[in-house]
Amino acid sequence: MERLSGQSATDLDRAAELLRKGRLVAVPTETVYGLAADARQDAAVRHVFTVKGRPLLDPLIVHLPSSPLPAKEVEWPEAARLLADTLWPGPLTLVLRRGDSCSWSPLVSAGLPTVAIRVPEHPVLQELLHRGPLPLAAPSANPFGYLSPTTAEHVEEQLGEQIDAILDGGPCAHGVESTILSLVHPERPTVLRPGPVSRETLAHVLGLEVEQVTRGPGRGAADPQLAPGQLPSHYSPHTPLRLFPEGAGASLDPEPDTARVFLQRPSGGSPGDLDFWWSEDGDPVTVARSLFALLRRLDRDPRVSLILAEQPASLEGLEGALRDRLSRAAHARHS
Ligand code: TXA
Ligand code: MG
Which residue's alpha carbon is nearest to atom 15 within ligand 1? Predict the structure, then answer.
């Protein structure tokens, strides 16, 4: 596995060369690290599924340097143009109908007549995408079901042996995955996965109401055709994780092997050895940035056999995305 620097032109050339040859390169994005392959090469895309241990029925996001795209690749409704002009590059993925002669591997669509695309804003990935090959199919660079990686070290720990290179672009700015919006029915835009771009922002840009698919623990599974891969259990540490409602931390009486994770530094009294917090002041942007990294750290901590984590109360905006990721992490295979 080659460790490449996003600051080096030679290393960026090398990453582009590997991708052109059908090899796999982990790349930084502003949300989480992705495991990239040339979206036009079937064998390379298939290899991504194998390395992640991901079912072939769960489609991939295609990353592009800019929009709009030729109509042969995707159908491009007016709503997509509006969102692309306003919010790209950025942490927003659009699900659109595949064009009639789309040049991307059918595996990226997992048999659906649609494809998910996004134009990321991370400067290192932008450099790489502009060098070619275009476009890059990239899921988050973690084994299927585990916490997403937000640093190059996270990727190396888990996938280092199985991939050709990691392009280091530093820690990810957002720390949670992009918002996914389906425009398959452009008059009825639907959020399939909450993320850094809020439903309110999308509705404002579109001048339309934006729905959110109801899914996740206790709410029944989403229509698998509409939202494949949105499993209730996802993003999970191996250590059991339970949630407590925002503000209820003080009333917990944890066992000695239980870590408590708060949204912000707890006030009053001195924190215990196994008390942690995602931010000083509860700012959701800071919480998101360290969400997965802290859970990973606790997952490896030999003192910890249970994690109790505080879940934001709000369903909207970035806090809604944090709620979503934490619910999935707690709804794990082992619980
Ligand atoms: O921020 C992100 O979106 C990161 C970075 C690397 O770009 N990528 C990411 O990819 O989170 P992944 O594969 O971990 O999650 C993509 C989600 C999956 O749940 C998949 O089911 C959904 O997008 N998806 C992909 N194509 C789709 C399609 N055609 N229709 C509906 N959902 C789709
Ligand atoms: Mg993922």
Answer: 139
How far apart CA 316 and CA 72 sit, in angstroms, is: 36
Determine if ligand 1 sits within 6 Å of the CB of residue 112: yes
Nearest alpha-carbon partner for 61 in 104, 99, 19? 104
**Residue 229: per-residue pLDDT:** 60
157 is in which domain, residue-wise? 2-212
26 and 170, same domain (yes or no): yes
User: CA-CA distances (angstroms) from residue 78 to 62, 64, 185, 209?
Assistant: 20, 19, 12, 15
* 10 in a structural domain: yes
| Distance of alpha carbon 266 from alpha carbon 54, whole angstroms | 38
Mean pLDDT (the chain, rounded) = 93
pTM: 0.94
Compute the distance from residue 230 Cα to the ligand 1 centre, in Å.
9
Whether residues 86 and 172 share a domain: the answer is yes
User: Same domain for 27 and 75?
Assistant: yes
The answer, yes or no, to whether any atom of ligand 1 lies below 6 A from the CB of 108, is no
Asked whether residue 174 is assigned to any structural domain, the reply reads yes
Domain count across the chain: 2
Is 313 a domain residue? yes
CA 216 to ligand 2 centroid distance, Å: 15
CATH number at residue 89: 3.90.870.10
**pLDDT class of 270 with cuts at 50, 70, 90:** confident
pLDDT tens digits for range 193-249:
999 999 999 999 999 999 998 754 444 444 555 566 666 677 899 999 999 999 998
In sequence order, what are the residues at sequence separation of 6 or more whose Cβ sits closer than 8 angstroms to the Cβ of residue 207?
A: none
